Task: inverse folding
């Protein structure tokens, strides 16, 4: 089943086009990798999916994005759309709330969960984000004062607490040490059972380890989309993809 | 190998010269404050007593205490706060969190800066025209406090806006991405982290309001009244005006009386400012990111 379908998507900031005519479909329970050097339009692409583009009056979007078969530009309640999509940024954002409140925020925004339910949600999400063991004794200390790697796992726990159908990770491992990165990657593999993941990464090997299919973005163009292994082991249609995955530029 | 070169020595020399210069300037700056305080304490300290604070002026204001003025100033400041804080904080939240970046917002911001630059006597005359005459509040605490509130609104707005904008944008974006509305984001993340800064601004406003004379002298504060204020439509005496009156308008006032009034007034203002500084230090100690 198609979770997300993008047709003829172009994004420009003023006169500066950052993404041109992207067409792709993402299947449910798929990890979809997006690789490409800086300025490829990857982050702008993610922003348009959960309608964060409305906060930037300079940003103009053309084309269609269908989430669960519905055009995201037609959703009247963008807050409901965003709450179904979890986002993790390149730099960790521990909100200046306690660790517990960080994870409890999304359920609280969505309704009035009972304290017992919240406890369960918080423990489950922190455990899945591989952070529970480190913070279980200090859930009331400030999330914004954790180390960078811990904050990034807190951010992931917070995204999971939304019980999202789609999880978008934007270069999540930039501020995380390699061991933690591996642990999070293991978590992502498990999460595939339940949700759909878009993994934007500038580590081509990370895409290779995780993604079922991968798209290669370059300077605002979606150069190639294919099964991840095809991109890495021949079967290229485009020489630029080969050059990038082999590390000849980037 | 680690011997200082001639250039190193010259740089170190110049550096200590500038340090001395800036230090001297700082010393020069606090000198007036010390002299003022010392003079007031020396000349007026002897008159300060519980009785002075809590009794009424007698003998044509040449003797007795300052209680009506003290109480009047508290009324004026309190009513001004009740008016300006909700108004100022709400306006600052709108300007910082909601207002689109366009010419109208820029004009409003400019207007706030200009409002801060309007001389207090102009505010006073505006207060007479608008509140005393047009709204027909008469010369009353309400009219005087409204005038004070309008005059100090920029202080509250600017302090609030700055403490809101000190909360990083990334926190807001994280909330928006989770599906939070702007108000949910403000209430749960932005305001709790800005509230100490807002309080600092409010306390600064109190200290400014306490000392103002011009805006109240035509709108609600009086030379002398035998009555204590009972409500916002009463006239009242006020510390700042009382100081002006006993120093220049009444013959035969003993020397230490105006000094004593000034000492009480400046102590109120300094106490407020110290409170605000203490708040800021407390805030810095509790920095959350």
Result:
């Amino acid at each position: 089943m198609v979770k997300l379908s993008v047709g003829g998507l172009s994004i420009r900031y003023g006169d500066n086009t950052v993404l041109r005519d992207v067409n792709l479909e993402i299947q449910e329970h798929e990890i979809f990798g997006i690789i490409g050097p800086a300025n490829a339009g990857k982050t702008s692409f993610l922003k348009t999916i959960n309608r964060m583009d409305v906060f930037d009056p300079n940003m103009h979007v053309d084309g269609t994005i269908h989430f669960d078969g519905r055009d995201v530009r037609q959703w009247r309640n963008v807050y409901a759309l965003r709450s179904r999509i979890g986002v993790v940024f390149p730099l960790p954002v521990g909100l200046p709330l306690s660790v517990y409140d960080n994870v409890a925020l999304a359920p609280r925004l969505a309704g009035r969960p009972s304290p017992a339910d919240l406890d369960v949600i918080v423990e489950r999400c922190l455990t899945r984000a591989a952070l529970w063991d480190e913070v279980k004794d200090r859930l009331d200390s400030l999330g914004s004062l954790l180390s960078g790697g811990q904050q990034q796992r807190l951010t992931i726990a917070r995204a999971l607490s939304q019980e999202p159908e789609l999880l978008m990770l934007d270069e999540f491992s930039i501020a995380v040490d390699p061991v933690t990165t591996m642990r999070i990657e293991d978590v992502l593999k498990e999460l595939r059972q339940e949700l759909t993941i878009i993994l934007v990464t500038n580590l081509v090997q990370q895409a290779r380890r995780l993604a079922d299919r991968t798209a290669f973005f370059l300077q605002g163009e979606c150069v190639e989309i294919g099964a991840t292994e095809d991109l890495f082991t021949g079967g290229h249609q485009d020489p630029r993809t080969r050059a990038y995955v082999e590390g000849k530029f980037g | 190998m680690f011997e200082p070169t001639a250039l190193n020595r010259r740089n170190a020399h110049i550096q200590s010269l500038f340090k001395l210069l800036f230090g001297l300037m700082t010393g020069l700056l606090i000198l007036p404050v010390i002299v003022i305080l010392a003079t007031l304490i020396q000349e007026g300290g002897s008159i300060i007593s519980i009785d002075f604070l809590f009794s009424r002026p007698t003998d044509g204001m040449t003797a007795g205490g300052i209680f009506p003025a003290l109480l009047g100033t508290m009324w004026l400041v309190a009513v001004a706060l009740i008016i300006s804080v909700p108004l100022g904080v709400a306006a600052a939240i709108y300007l910082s969190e909601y207002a689109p970046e366009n010419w109208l917002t820029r004009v409003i911001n400019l207007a706030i800066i200009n409002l801060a630059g309007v001389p207090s006597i102009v505010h006073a005359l505006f207060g007479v025209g608008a509140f005393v005459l047009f709204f027909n509040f008469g010369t009353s605490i309400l009219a005087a406090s409204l005038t004070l509130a309008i005059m100090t609104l920029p202080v509250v707005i600017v302090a609030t806006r700055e403490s809101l904008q000190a909360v990083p944008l990334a926190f807001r974006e994280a909330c928006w991405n989770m599906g939070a509305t702007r108000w949910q984001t403000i209430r749960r993340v932005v305001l709790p982290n800005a509230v100490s800064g807002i309080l600092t601004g409010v306390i600064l406003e109190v200290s400014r309001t306490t000392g103002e004379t011009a805006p109240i002298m035509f709108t609600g504060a009086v030379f002398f009244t035998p009555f204590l204020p009972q409500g916002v439509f009463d006239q009242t005496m006020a510390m700042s005006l009382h100081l002006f009156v006993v120093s220049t308008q009444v013959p035969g006032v003993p020397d230490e009386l105006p000094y004593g009034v000034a000492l009480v007034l400046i102590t109120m203002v300094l106490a407020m400012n110290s409170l605000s500084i203490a708040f800021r230090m407390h805030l810095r100690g509790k920095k959350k990111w």
In short: Chain A has a mean pLDDT of 90. The beta strands of chain A are 2-13, 16-27, 31-35, 59-67, 70-71, 85-88, 166-170, 196-201, 213-218, 221-227. Residues 1-84+194-250 of chain A form a domain with the Rossmann fold fold (CATH 3.40.50.300). Chain A touches chain B through 32 residues (CB under 8 Å).
